[in-house]
Amino acid sequence: MDSITQAALGAAVGEALLGKKLGNRAVAWGLLFGTLPDLDVIFSRFLDTARQLEFHRGASHSLLLMIIASIALAKPLAKLWKKEKISTIRAGWFVFLAWSTHVLIDCFTVYGTSVLWPFSETRVAFNNLFIIDPLYTLPLLVSLVWLCFCRSKKLLSKRARLLKWGLGISTAYVALTFGLKFMVSSAFEADLARRAVTSERRMEAPTAFNTLLWRSVVDRGDELWVGYRSVFERPSAPVRWTIYPRRTETLAGLEKEREVETLKWFSRGWWIARPHAEGVWIADMRFGETRTYESKPGMVDSRIIFSWSFLPKAEGDRLRTERPDVRNAKNSLKRTALRIFTSDGWEANPRLAGIPGTLPEFLPVAD
Description:
The chain is of the alpha+beta class. About 45% of the residues lie in helices and about 20% in strands.
């Protein structure tokens, strides 16, 4: 999740465990420890692109490091808060819970988190929240800002009620997202069953900044199918699938290159590839795409949000991150918001765009 959400969740943990004795300082300490795991980005600057993908949300988000940090920091923090009579055990639990809730909320996103590092390289991802979700964050922020003005000891009970409301609403919203995911996932599965389409696996995740419009990716081996469904659509409403050929032959002879192996691991196999003049383009299909409608009448150009160019002959960092045009992203967000309530103006003849030095590629569909 985004840093504001992580800070708010950490601040809520700080208030819950230390608020009665530290007051607003508990919120500040929680804010600090709630963002601590993501400080791995500071060290990422010294790594190449492939190693950054391996490092971020890696060791700093592991259960092992949570336990070590909780034990190591418990006594120093208890000593710092000796005047307020914070025990070593409570200080340790504060570190563990502030750290672990950060990791837990990260697990709700598509990106995934290395909870079991170094024992497993598999990242945990439940795919039920977008990385920025105002409906989760705002109740926490409002309750925390409000309770910070309740400084008198006579208002301790009010602080507790505000915290319960903030955490309660946000937690209930997370529970709701699992229900919404189950509902749309069942509808996607029913649509594929009506078509007698078989697949190796399937994943669903919400689109940007909401949980009302969901995106499904279906792995059929040599191609990936992408479809959208709003929670307001009838279960029997057909899905229009856009088909992205995987093009495994693009990586022939490059499979053992470190950067290519890293991208395959990072994407958990949800990748497509295309050649271009300087090397190959590889995209992670889990994170969605921006959509541009103005390039050509009757066409919609899709640019994959997470994609890279691997340049075998380049010196230094051979992996270059490709970023979609910001103007395209804004237009795509507007269309996404409209698609929640109606499919009019959403579908068009799709093309895969954004591959350096190549023309858009026409994509087949399954209506």
